[in-house]
Request: fold
Amino acid sequence: MSETTPAAPQTNRLNLTRKQYEGAPSTLCRGCGHDAITASIIQACHESSLDPRQVIKLSGIGCSAKTANYFMNQSFGFNGTHGRMAAMATGVGLANHTLIPIGVSGDGDTGSIGLGNFAHMVRRCLRVCYIVENNGVYGLTKGQFSATADLGTRLKKGLINPFEAIDLPAFSILMGATFVARSFSGDRKQLAPLIEAALNHKGTAVLDVLSPCVTFNDHEGSTKSLKAIRENREALNELDFIPSFEPVQIDQPEGTDLRVSMHEGGWITLHKLKDHDPSDRLAALALMEKHRNQGKFVTGLIYIDEKMPDLAEIEQLTDTPLAYLTEKELRPSREALDEINASLMV
Amino acid sequence: MSQPLVNDVSISIATENGSGSASANNILYKAIFKMGIPCSSKNVFPSNIQGLPTWYLIRVSGQGYLARKDVIDAAVIFNDVTAQDDVAAVRPGGLVLYDSSTPLAPALVRPDLKYIGAPAWNLVKEHIKQPQLRAKQRNLIYVGALGKLFGIPLDVLREVLKDTFGKKPAVIESNLLCIKLGYEHIESAGERQEVARLEPVPDGNQGKIMTEGNTACALGAIFGGCTVVAWYPITPSSSLVEEMIARVDRYRLDEKGRRRYAILQAEDELASASMVIGAGFSGARTMTATAGPGLSLMQEGIGLAYFAEVPGVFIVVQRGGPSTGLPTRTQQSDITLMHQGSHGDTKHLVLIPHDNATAFEMTWRAFDLADRFQTPVFVMMDLDLGMNISTSNPLQMPDQPMDRGKLLSAGQVEALGGKFRRYLDVDGDGIPQRTIPGNAHPGAAYFARGSGHDADARYSESNVVYKETLDRLRRKYETARSVVPKPVEFNGTGGKAGLVSFGTTYEPAREAVARLAAAGQPVDHLLLRALPLTPEVERFLAAHERIYLAEQNRDGQMTQIVRDDFPKYADRIRPVLVYDGLPPTAGEIVRQIRAAG
Reply:
């Protein structure tokens, strides 16, 4: 009888295994879509050899917000207040623009209470990988509608939503987001590369990830049940992210329709499944509008612009993170104060 | 006819806002200051851009009393809309200066006042070619007229013009022309007044600086090492950050001209507070400046900063509340909110400046205390100090290196055995150790949260752990009692009565104390400079049978805090409350002290 040696865990360029990108065990309901998203985040971070010490995890409040604790426990994280993660992330980005923020939010956190702050974070091109775990309900408070609940969808208790859903991808594009995608928690093949690309994007990358709530929104009549999402997805493209440390292929992989060079190095290669050019902002908005209230979810990379400067660049920040500047650079001299006093004497 | 007072007069100048009178008033004020006489200026302006009434109150006091005077000795009534009330407000025997281009309405004539006219409109119509400049230049006519009437040398006024408009000779010329017109009219008309006389005091104001309190705070922030500012414009705090913006490039650009700071105008105060938290968590020295309504919005954020123990400086420039209230009037009515902001059991550090020099000092100290105690620190300003131009001793260089508190480097985490416990009380003062993102040690990271957490920052609902956390936060606050700026005590009469003041109540309070002493009612005076209240405050309470606490709000907010902290002496405290939106006068404080018995 031979013993099989267990395969050594795969290590990335930092010699870290996937396990080292995990966090605390999840306390979410069994089968929750959010846990699948967490798995994709872990895969994406591990495969792109992201240094956990460079990542900062941010979240608001809700079931989705809890997941920030379930990946990369070697990274700093902050679970803040409901709807304010976008603003908190902005403060983080100003204090230390060398960090890579991963913001995890929900449809209530971003679509309702946080909509204003979210819009302005996007408008300022804050560098952040911003993931909305979108299930159309408020899970943690037990099943109220969220602002992304579709018109006509039914709550478990029977209430029908009379209001229009906020289309987060369309909203993001309108506010100036330079990387907008939608995916589905159960489609790791699509989601993980999108996250990798988003982590490498030097601006606001918004990922609207449909993530069925098995406890409160998975019933007949819900437009965001697992069944409904599976049946109504329409992938726009197949995307792959090639990190900068991988050799550049001379020939494009077969079937590549678009290659986007990322600002920080690396490439997105994209195979179109539908006739949509993700570099065309107007087309992206038209696409979202066309699909509104049609019961269909377009998924994949919807819009990308690698040319816009991010907030750190707009604010002309010095290279050293502001948080790491020392007294020498920050406190003017005694002579400077003497000069000020002299100028204030009449 | 009483003898004219020397270097003791208050002048109320009533004009229309947006008419350029602010510029003219500042020239007059600076000229008096240049004569070496202590003087103060208070702008009472509407929440409006142009066309509503505004008043400028100058007080000249050889004795150095800078609070608003109890009486108005002289009024300039250049706004017809308010002229009736302006005349009624002048004390018997006082002076009224009016625009005699039109005859004085009989309704405005009081037999007990002296009236002097200068035909300001006519003069500008005659001498100022561009019609659109006449309203502005008209104000300089009264500046000149007052100058001649009260004995301000023309040379001094000319010097002030040069100092103010040095780079614009045409402006100096035009302004000087109008000042001279007013001056010479009074001279040639032989007009005189017996209300007061100004006599120069050689080197009287030497070494004093003159600026707005908000500017002093802005400079304090720069010298305090502030790198991230998130703010939302709101009267009366906007000029604080705007001053910072105007000055910061001089000190904070690197060799490539890039910024060693970030000042971001947020979309609202909710965002400002959260940006401060994100920046503070990441290790930057960070602040916001706001007023009451903004502070209300920030409550949730403040609670998060308190519970997750994130440093941040919150400068609050108080104004008339509640709600929108009186955006352009002064008050001290956000004390409770600063002291206990946010739901749950919270208690915050508050530093209280009372003049420009301390506005600078308390601001830079706030950053040290925020870092040291890992908590929000408030700087309590108000409209009176923040937006009025006032004089003080020069700004003093910080007397200690920047205190970053128990901030661990990677090496220090390693020295701890590679394990770092974010919320552990390591030495009994309630203050744990802290790391910031970017720390290279793999054991340095932690996950902060506003929810219940244990010493390792892990989520916890344990009743034992939760109570321990609250108790430790309380311990932190108690430690602060021996660290925050101490009060300053005056007089030491050994008498039975004491008066406590803070912030802009200090000036009228100290004048009240002098007045009471002169009347044979000595009162000791304590100037509060921070919360939490220090042991010195308790000693002051213990040493006096009756303690008057003067503050600018209706409900005695500071009185409440003092009573809560020192219940043993609660009954001894008698609140002296001034809350009509105007800076308090010594007379009002004296009146209330006497009424309280």
Remarks:
- Chain B touches chain A through 79 residues (CB under 8 Å).
